[in-house]
Amino acid sequence: MKLPLKPIKPKRISDQVFDQLTELIARGELKPGDKLMPERELSAVLGVSRTTIRNAINKLVVLGFLDHKQGQGTFVRLPDVRDNNPLAIAMQTEDATLEDLLEVRMGLECNAAALAARRAVEEDIHFLEKSLEEMKAEVASDRLGTEADVSFHMAVSYATKNPVQVRIMREFYDFLFYGINENLARLYEKPERIEEILFQHTQIIHAIKKHDPDEAYEAMERHIIYVLNFFKNQDL
């Protein structure tokens, strides 16, 4: 039987650069508004040609992760809803609500927390703790800490070491950002809610550091249920 198989092609270098930059954005190492270092510096750091760097950056610009400003440089963009994203279509055509979004997060992120507890290494813990400290600093400065909050949840996904989980969360990134931004704008009207969210994040990190999957699952579940119940009660 003849199968329609094609020869395996090695991954292009520009795609590897693209993956690294995308991960830095998703993890919050590169935040919205940050200026990317010049092509020549990226070329030197990564040990690839400037053409390779340019190809990766152009792809990120097309996908809406970066914004190139003539004469100023390339900057990280705020995530936006892109028409070719199936999640965008669902949100726009199915009358999806924030509650729907949080229910999906429940499934994705509770399992992610459990997997992260099994597989997280020192670097993953570093990113989790860093995002928590950044969020505390943002809140102390009377800002929402949205980027740091998103970075925390993305860091949990990366700690799973599951490429499918990471891929799904990358596609989910726009909606995660939207959901958290909307959540915090209303949740943070009272200081006690801010402290509770930070405490919940701390519990999740603690469980992952202990490598306790059940505790990590339950800590993430409590966190999302807390936010979900808040919004359900707002509609009463």
How would you sum up this structure in a few lines?
The protein is 70% helix and 3% strand. The protein has 10 helices and 2 strands, in the order αααββααααααα.
Helix content: 55-70%
Share of residues in strands: under 5%
What general outline do the C-alpha atoms trace?
A: globular
What is the H-and-E element order? Answer: HHHEEHHHHHHH
List how many beta strands DSSP finds. Answer: 2
Oligomer: single chain
Order of adjacent strands in the largest pleated sheet: 1-2
Count of DSSP H/I helices: 10
- Secondary structure class reads mainly alpha
Overall pLDDT score: 83
CATH top level assignment of the largest domain: Mainly Alpha
The residue ranges in which pLDDT falls below 50 over 5 or more consecutive positions are none
